[in-house]
């Protein structure tokens, strides 16, 4: 089996609010989640609403590069 042709890939989701607040140093860290997506069904970047422990609310977490 070839590993490069798998449909499911691992992606990292990062909080968009924490990234913006990191410039102002308001947030103590950046929230990140690891999940999987199907490369064939979702070719674009993934965005999900997840809970951010640094913002203390549900925010948009977007896919980042590895």
TrEMBL record:
<keyword id="KW-0689">Ribosomal protein</keyword>
<dbReference type="GO" id="GO:0009507">
    <property type="term" value="C:chloroplast"/>
</dbReference>
<dbReference type="InterPro" id="IPR001705">
    <property type="entry name" value="Ribosomal_bL33"/>
</dbReference>
<dbReference type="GO" id="GO:0005840">
    <property type="term" value="C:ribosome"/>
</dbReference>
<dbReference type="GO" id="GO:0003735">
    <property type="term" value="F:structural constituent of ribosome"/>
</dbReference>
<dbReference type="Pfam" id="PF00471">
    <property type="entry name" value="Ribosomal_L33"/>
</dbReference>
<dbReference type="InterPro" id="IPR018264">
    <property type="entry name" value="Ribosomal_bL33_CS"/>
</dbReference>
<dbReference type="InterPro" id="IPR011332">
    <property type="entry name" value="Ribosomal_zn-bd"/>
</dbReference>
<protein>
    <recommendedName>
        <fullName>Large ribosomal subunit protein bL33c</fullName>
    </recommendedName>
</protein>
<keyword id="KW-0687">Ribonucleoprotein</keyword>
<comment type="similarity">
    <text>Belongs to the bacterial ribosomal protein bL33 family.</text>
</comment>
<dbReference type="GO" id="GO:0006412">
    <property type="term" value="P:translation"/>
</dbReference>
<dbReference type="GO" id="GO:1990904">
    <property type="term" value="C:ribonucleoprotein complex"/>
</dbReference>
<dbReference type="InterPro" id="IPR038584">
    <property type="entry name" value="Ribosomal_bL33_sf"/>
</dbReference>
<keyword id="KW-0150">Chloroplast</keyword>
<keyword id="KW-0934">Plastid</keyword>
